[in-house]
Amino acid sequence: xxxxxxxxxxxxxxxxxxxxxxxxxxxxxxxxxxxxxxxxxxxxxxxxxxxxxxxxxxxxxxxxxxxxxxxxxxxxxxxxxxxxxxxxxxxxxxxxxxxxxxxxxxxxxxxxxxxxxxxxxxx
Length: 123
Fold this sequence. Notes:
Order of helices and strands: EHHHEHEE
Number of helices: 4
Helix content: 40-55%
Structural class: mainly alpha
Shape: extended
Mean pLDDT: 93
Strand order of the largest sheet: 1-2
């Protein structure tokens, strides 16, 4: 049996929330740079330059690439021999998202009951 500490889940989820918002995937960055080299329109070339520069600044300064950091969607695969110790797995994931968004200065704009109350959960 493998034991996984709930605290480790929280820390990992928090780190991944920040990384997903600070670092553009290398495949995407390469595609942007390739598009920039091939772009003929000066306006489009300038926009691509700005996107690439923004990605560079975000990675170096560890700040979000965009003000809209999206919505965290977590997929979990847990083997039958795994055991979470020190807490509930789902609560550890939720706490990791809360922690990652707070520490990473990510925009907390999720609403519960979006079609009626539209109350921001603030986390």
